[in-house]
From TrEMBL:
GO terms for molecular function: citrate synthase activity. Pathway: Carbohydrate metabolism; tricarboxylic acid cycle; isocitrate from oxaloacetate: step 1/2. This is Citrate synthase. Pfam families: Citrate_synt. It comes from Staphylococcus devriesei. Keywords: Transferase, Tricarboxylic acid cycle. It catalyses: oxaloacetate + acetyl-CoA + H2O = citrate + CoA + H(+). GO terms for biological process: carbohydrate metabolic process; tricarboxylic acid cycle.
């Protein structure tokens, strides 16, 4: 039997054209993340991940129109949030349920042609933004807001969440965050999605499985934990004492280090700059200053560099987005990658069936219950 690799570290489990991480540099379909972060709309990234190329203007306009069209949910979907939209239900739990629920309203949910799968991917990508924002509003006793067809995907999310047009800086920051989180090679949730559909299960099942994987604090939940940490530090002067205590107690400092990147997360620098801009616009520059102080100390003492989660937390917080929505926002972006991986798995499928190394007892004999 093959050698055990815990966590499948270093194991190649799939071939992909979607994204790659080589020498600590992330690319989407061969495009450097630096190039895309500076220039691309999230809608372009969606098309790129699904088709391995950037769209022309006609294709981009068509995708935007479809996304805006499909963003509106069936009235029964809006209403169903009233059954469980409370502060006691984590938004990721709600998202897991609601993604499964919208499958009931897809007229082609079981039609598995390539054309229908692509159309289904558009539907899911559009509706996941509405699911997150509708849940957030319903639990606050507010009416869900329908999308504005004149807005981009990033702007529409913020509009549907807040009920007011976002600023240019907010749209820029949110679009950049969506671009940077869209895909990340064969991460835990993408692998989970591929595993689910490798049995030829449907795309909704794959996305539900991926949402469940992303929910964990070792994956998508990290940026929420970062903000909880920053909330405990009231000023730059408290940073050293706070970190001293954490380090002494051998507690994990969230937002630092990465399983794959050894020389730093290439995505972090863009959200660092957006954090500076948006905290300044919101009059909350102290959050950026605290973040920089923590970053400096962690680099000097532990040799650790922040990952993408660290600065995304202050970006979202400065837009007055509730902290427990940070991971669902990650899911909104990463759905573009999940659907890309699902489509790719369908095109060249073999059911996932690894082996396990048995380490339990052997040669045991059944005893009648009165003898046990």
């Amino acid at each position: 039997m093959a050698e055990l690799q815990k966590g499948l570290e270093g194991v190649i489990a799939a071939e992909t054209k979607i994204s790659s991480i080589v020498d600590s540099q992330l690319t989407y379909a061969g495009y450097d993340i630096d190039d895309l972060a500076e220039n691309a709309l999230f809608e372009e990234i969606i098309f790129l991940l699904w088709n391995y190329r950037l769209p022309n203007q006609e294709e981009l306009d068509a995708l935007k129109d479809k996304l805006n069209h499909y963003m509106t949910l069936n009235p029964r979907v809006y209403n169903h949030f009233e059954e469980y939209a409370t502060d006691n239900v984590h938004p990721m739990t709600a998202l897991r349920t609601s993604v499964s629920y919208i499958a009931h309203f897809d007229p082609d949910a079981e039609n598995e042609t390539e054309e229908n799968r692509l159309e289904r991917a558009v539907r899911i990508q559009a509706k996941i933004a509405s699911l997150v924002t509708a849940f957030a509003r319903v639990r606050e006793g507010k009416e869900p807001i329908k999308p504005n067809p004149e807005l981009s995907y990033a702007a529409n999310f913020l509009y549907m969440l807040k009920g007011e047009l976002p600023t240019d800086t907010q749209v820029e920051a949110f679009n950049k965050a969506l671009v940077l989180h869209a895909d990340h090679e064969l991460n835990a949730s993408a692998f989970t999605a591929r595993c689910a559909v490798s049995s030829l299960s449907d795309m909704y099942s794959g996305i539900v499985a991926a949402v469940g994987s992303l929910k964990g604090p070792l994956h998508g939940g990290a940026n929420e934990q970062v903000m909880n940490m920053l909330a405990e530090v009231k000023s730059v002067d408290e940073v050293d004492a706070y970190l001293d205590k954490k380090i002494k107690n051998k507690e994990k400092i969230m937002g630092f280090g990465h399983r794959v990147y050894k020389d730093g997360d290439p995505r972090a620098k863009y959200l660092r700059e957006m954090s500076r801009k948006i905290t300044e616009e919101a009059g909350r520059s102290e959050l950026y200053d605290i973040s920089i102080a923590i970053e400096k100390r962690m680099k000097e003492e532990k040799g650790l560099i922040p990952n993408v989660d660290f600065f995304s937390a202050t970006v979202y917080h400065s837009m007055d987005i509730p902290h427990d929505l940070f991971t669902p926002i990650f899911a909104v972006s990463r759905t573009s990658g999940w659907t890309a991986h699902i489509l790719e798995q369908y095109r060249d499928n073999r059911i996932m069936r690894p082996r396990a190394k048995y380490i339990g007892e052997t040669e045991r004999k059944y005893l009648p219950i009165e003898e046990r």
